[in-house]
Design brief:
Helices cover 21% and strands 31% of the residues. With 238 residues, it is of the alpha/beta class. The chain has 2 domains: 99 residues, Elongation Factor Tu (Ef-tu), domain 3, CATH 2.40.30.10; 122 residues, Nucleotide-binding domain of ferredoxin-NADP reductase (FNR) module (Rossmann fold), CATH 3.40.50. The protein is globular, with a radius of gyration of 18 Å. It is an enzyme of class 1 (oxidoreductase). InterPro entries: FNR_nucleotide-bd, Riboflavin_synthase-like_b-brl. This is Ferredoxin--NADP+ reductase.
Length: 238
């Protein structure tokens, strides 16, 4: 396993609770849209075993041509040891990244793509949308639906409806409106539905989509292949 040590190049305050850490691209480090990585703080590998409290699984919110690895995360007032350390890191500090992989690349199958997300989960979709804007081949249109009860919505300058690009972005701040919209989107029985958020959020969305007769193979999750059956293989008739 190769560990890439790199420096924080810039810190962007997206909202009062969300920051994006832009990291220098180490030589030889590559990724594609929808990628996640293991993001670790100094000292995580100092002992005999890795200190897991200093490692987090994070989505990369940028594309390689932006020349920075973007890590976008929510840091609340009361937070974990990891987030407390991260909050106090400054530009120039070193962090590590390793085990980078994409579970949710943009599928180009001449279908409509629906991006369902909760809060900062939208960061996973930023590279997919950017990739689509630059190369819309074999994607009919993209519809992004994000729920964030804080109402401090992310990336609103990019996630803005653009009919000429066949892109729609919608933000809601409550569950009722969110799930009503999911049901409407599920009227498209051929669409591809991506879901990013907590495990509970995934389960609730899958339940709604399956009730609307969306098949498991139309549902994309940011999970390793071996984890998918846990979410997609339950029987609705039970």
């Amino acid at each position: 396993m190769q560990i890439y040590w790199t420096k924080i190049n810039k810190i962007i305050e997206e909202t009062p609770e969300v920051k994006t850490y832009l990291l220098d691209c180490p030589e030889g480090f590559t990724w594609e849209e929808g990628s996640h990585t293991h993001f670790a703080l100094e000292g995580f590998n100092a002992g005999d075993k890795p200190n897991r409290s200093l490692i987090r699984h994070m989505s990369i919110s940028t594309l390689p041509h932006e020349n920075a690895i973007g890590i976008t995360t929510r840091i609340r007032e009361q937070c974990s040891e990891f987030k407390t350390i991260l909050r106090n890191l400054e530009v120039g500090k070193e962090v590590a990244i390793f085990k980078t992989h994409s579970n949710v690349p943009l599928k180009r199958e001449d279908k409509n793509v629906y991006l369902l997300s909760s809060g900062v989960g939208l960061a996973t979709y930023r590279p997919l949308v950017l990739d689509y804007f630059e190369r819309p081949d074999n994607v009919k249109q993209i519809y992004s639906l994000n729920i964030d009860s804080s109402k401090d919505f992310l990336f609103t300058n990019m996630f803005e409806s653009a009919p000429d690009k066949k892109f729609t972005a919608q933000f809601v701040d409550n569950r009722k409106d969110y799930y009503e919209n999911v049901k409407k989107l599920a009227a498209d029985k051929e669409g591809l539905f991506y879901i990013v958020g907590s495990d509970d959020f995934l389960v609730q969305n899958i339940e709604v989509l399956r009730e609307q007769n969306i098949k498991p193979e139309q549902i994309m999750l940011d999970k390793h292949e071996q984890q998918l059956p846990k979410f997609l293989s339950y029987d609705l008739s039970v």
